UniProtKB/TrEMBL annotation:
Protein name, entry field: Glycogen synthase
Chain sites annotated for binding ADP-alpha-D-glucose: K18
TM region positions: none
A molecular-function term among this protein's GO annotations: alpha-1,4-glucan glucosyltransferase (UDP-glucose donor) activity
Organism in which the protein naturally occurs: Candidatus Gallionella acididurans
Xref: SUPFAM superfamilies: UDP-Glycosyltransferase/glycogen phosphorylase
Gene that encodes it: glgA
NCBIfam families: glgA, PRK00654.1-2
Function statement: Synthesizes alpha-1,4-glucan chains using ADP-glucose.
Enzyme class: transferase
Amino acid sequence: MAELKILFATSEVAPLIKTGGLADVSGALPVALRAMGIDVRVLVPGYNQVIAQLVNYQVVATFADLPGFPFAHLLSGTMANGMPLLVLDCPSLYQREGGPYQNTQGHDWADNALRFGMLSKVAAELGSSTSPLAWHPDLVHCNDWQTALTPAYLHFSPGAVPSIVSIHNLAFQGNFPPETVQQLHLPPSCYGIDGVEFYGNMSFLKAGLFYADHITTVSPNYAKEIQQEELGFGMQGLLTSRSGHLTGILNGIDTDEWNPMTDPHLVRPYSSANMSGKAADKEALQSSMGLNLEPDTPLLGVVSRFTDQKGLDLLLEIAPRLSKLPVQLAMLGSGDAQMQKAARDLSHLFPGKIGAVIGFSEALSHQIEAGADMFVMPSRFEPCGLNQMYSQRYGTPPIVHATGGLVDSVVDCTAATLKDGTASGFMFDGMTAENLYAAIQRAVGLYHDTEKWEVLRKNCMAKDFSWQNSAEAYRAVYLQVLGR
Ligand code: ADP
Ligand code: GLC
């Protein structure tokens, strides 16, 4: 019998359905846990994209009378990599044209409370004695607001197992009008400060942070930041009061998926020992992004959701100044309409120097990590961030703002850190366009010092960002919660 059985509840999982880093984590952490002998099963909603990619699935349960929720099946299947998956098949809630959270116009689905209330409710059912499944988890691991109502349901369920909630982003809280408590059939008594109430609304995330047995977040530095007003998004008081049950665990990355030696998206793979392929990948990227084919001009890469969090407004602001330097910029992203337009406009204003692709492209994201010389990530806040880790693995030093997980995963390049072999990127303090510009200038200066640049690249590529250590840390949390 497996040492531990974990139900991992999530609203997205790569490669089936992805809007951001949560999908990457949900696709890789459970695999790393399974490799350690833990029996993990991932629960996700049956969006079109998920149902279409599921192999060998069967109906294992039916939910016909969950009060307030529509009829649904639970499917059991596997992902292509063998990962066992439980899929909540409820076509009226999940099978639509559009994204997991928003319609094709970019507006939140009007029934998101019901959609993710149901996901949370089913996760709680599977973790209580009324579960229709023979497989009983020892613990439910919830992720972000979409599954953070699970601990509240568990609290009021018979024979409930413990739960933990992982915060991937405190800015998304799932706050809805107070009537939602009734609509989702939670006991009215839970609507209070010691419960799901949050500044006059009912909050999925607040519920999780209050009722879960333990809270984790995706970097040690962010675990500290969210206990303070500036980045606590109103939850700092609760988080501080629960600090004895709050652990920051730095995300890992999927080192098979993100491997410059084997990456099928690259025109030429490369390794730290032989970097010649990287030059070919740069040329291919310049060509595909409409940039001048200049091998020695430093090329800055961006792959990002376009949102206030990512601080790209600073980069867009200094882009005209950058275009006067011998520097090129390749941007891939989507989101905020104004930022999309600004990026597009810049590429028209500075043809050959600035390239922008608006959209979501897995292949191009790999090609930018490989083909760029530096990766720009000036996030205002960043719970962990994965791209700065991908870029280091691809020998593309990141230029980052000193916040969240960026502080835990990038070492600023100075004379001292170059000497002791830890330097792996460029970090700026103080969220201003000037400070970002200065950091880019520092990076460009070093780029032209070929010997030092080689040292920096090698440092980056030698770093271990695999999931192994983080998965061990999650296991330790599970065992602690279970008192084993
Ligand atoms: P966040 O989850 O806040 O968006 P992360 O850095 O943790 O930030 O993860 C973002 C993930 O989404 C990375 O895998 C990144 O490559 C991917 N990504 C973001 N935008 C795009 C895009 N436009 N096209 C392809 N991949 C993208
Ligand atoms: C969130 C955060 C990001 C983190 C990711 C995975 O989307 O914004 O920083 O890396 O979740 O944990």
